[in-house]
Fold Deoxyribonuclease-1-like 1.
Amino acid sequence: MRLSFLLLLLLFLVGVNDVEGASEFRVCAFNLHHFGESKTRKDAVMLTLSKIITRCDVSLLQEVRDSKEVALPLLMSQINRFDTRHQYQALVSERLGRSETYKEQYVFVYRTDTVTVTGKYQYPDTRPGNVDVFSREPFVVRFKALTTTVKEFVLIPQHTTPANTTKELDALYDVLQHVKKMWKTENVMLLGDFNADCGYLAKKNRKNVRLITDQRLYWLIEDKTDTTVRSSTSCTYDRIVVNGEAFAREIVPMSARPFNFQREYRLTEDEALDVSDHYPVEVLLKVVRSKSSFHLKEKSVTFKAFYIMNALFCKAFVLILYCL
Ligand SMILES: *[C@@H]1O[C@H](CO)[C@@H](O)[C@H](O)[C@H]1NC(C)=O
């Protein structure tokens, strides 16, 4: 009898481990729709952006059009003031685009306490026979995360040009092969506003896109998912694609989805459109529930409080059982 109670007690204590471990690791991609100085002048917009971006361990921001380099620093300081539990840093690409007057940057905002940057690579877009295929060449970044089951992973961002979606998506396949070889890794995720739907990617053209036809690639945001804010549109423009079964297994099943911030933060359509005309898309990577996270947390006050409460509860429980 006593032994079974002891076992029960042990079970309760072990349960603490589950509660306290870092529970998720979120990767997001968000087209900010003309993010520049004018958005920084709208407090409500900046607050919503801070809320959205601080949900994620890593966010890929697109359509950052900050020629005077003032908007992004403002956003970063607001983010760091909004969420003081973490520290956020930005890794910014060059200003990309064919026209002198219209350029965009890819920006990765990430938590410095959960993830580190271990490599970056601006795709040169000089592939023979297909030179300058992209209007915004991928700015590829490799990350190392402390808590995820996959230790290192690579993110390939892309915001396609609507008129050239088919060609650019197909060319992303070449980028993927190149990056896999260069960094000797299969843990690669492609993400962003692919414009991969509605008028921009015709059904009949899909068979010509290797990024779609290769069975080893997993399109996690499925067709018919609405990633657009306007109630009058429903298109799956924004996507997350994972390379290979091994990496796909390290993703939390069914976790990929658009984040409907309009509904979540109870905004009107116009208020939401002030922020962006896209929803962010997101996915969770599996995290380790290990002894090490147990020990890491052991020092924290909340852990101690929880531990003591739990122990008291268990003692009471055992006592009650004895009395019965
Ligand atoms: C589409 O791609 C071609 C060549 O790759 C380029 O010349 C053209 O400007 C692109 N269209 C747009 C709208 O960027």
Notes: Residues 98, 132-133, 135, 161, 163-164 surround 2-acetamido-2-deoxy-beta-D-glucopyranose (CB under 6 Å).
